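Following up on my earlier thread - several people asked me to post the actual chain instead of describing it. Fair enough. Here it is, all 401 residues.
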Amino acid sequence: MFQQSRRAARIKPSPAIAVSVQAKALARQGIDVVDLSVGEPDFDTPAHVRAAAVVAMEAGETHYTAADGTAALKQAIAAAFLRDYGLRFEPAEITAANGAKQVICNALLATLDPGDEVIVPAPYWVSYTDLVLLADGTPVEVACPAAAGFKLSPEALEAAITPRSRWLLLNAPSNPTGAAYSEAELKALGEVLDRHPHVMILADEIYDLIRYDGGAPLSFLSVNPGLRGRTLVVNGVSKAYAMTGWRLGYGAGPAELVTAMAKIQSQATSNPSSISQAAAIAALTGPQDFVATALAEYQARRDLVMELLEDIPQLTPHRPDGAFYVYIDCSALIGCRSVDGSVLEDDAGVARFLLDVARVAVVPGAAFGAQPFFRISFATSRVRLTEGCTRMAAAIKDLTR
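Reply from S.P.:
Thanks for posting it. Predicted structure:
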């Protein structure tokens, strides 16, 4: 008889993926759903990256590699860190895995013991707290309200740190809010952490190249070089290079941490795909014009979506600084009644209503640790974004108190 472990029982499936599965199930029934739930670029992987994968296959690069990446890939990752941030890393300080999610998981598994705490600013990416629980840690959620730009303040960070604090998990630009920190804001957080040498920093910067302020990419570590000995910078090729399905993420940090993470990975999955590694080298070291082209299109989509959403008086969208999400305050909808008589009791109810009535898939804020909100992704065409927002407006208009 099957008996689920306590570890498995502590975590839940990804809510964003669950919503997308529902949307796809409706689509198989012939129902047109505008799926704004999943954060996945709709662009094809750049041609030169795909070509590099073909060359690698034809050259026989189809065998096992070192558990956490080839020497060539680590050199490419080091070159990208130097080019984008002026950060220098040695190969022993770099690890590659099956997506940035595995890098984060490896780091937590390699460092957490039962009772260890991980500070997680909320709203947060849906997987963070579950990954902490999977590693027997305790997530400590710190509310970062809309009035604070959904960003962690130095005061809130200071208050959250205890003797059991092991990590601060900082995601910027953020999923789900798109919030990005300025250099001064990152410096202020670094000053707090400098006073607490037992706290490590996991800087998830997977959306670093998707920022709308016109400035250069900004890394926590480049602003706080004095914290290098306890900072792990996590990134990957999924978002900036439209390579979600290739499953290739990477991290850079202290060599002893990277060694421990590689040990975990060697027993869990071994190396990431050799073909994906070859493709990632091409993405990181080849022409970068795709990144700029995609960024310009994302910004146009953001501006379009904000204009459409701001015309819906019951919704309060928050303009993102980066990434490709809008986090939307739907508190004005709570307590409203739909045509069938059902009451929208929370943001999960709002998301169900939008899927059932408007045929638009969104992710409720409860999944991100902040309510009542929902998240949409604008990593899809302007036509579909316009259709989705139009449908939401029409469905919401029919709600009553």
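The CA atoms of residues 232 and 253 lie 4 Å apart. That should answer part of your original question.
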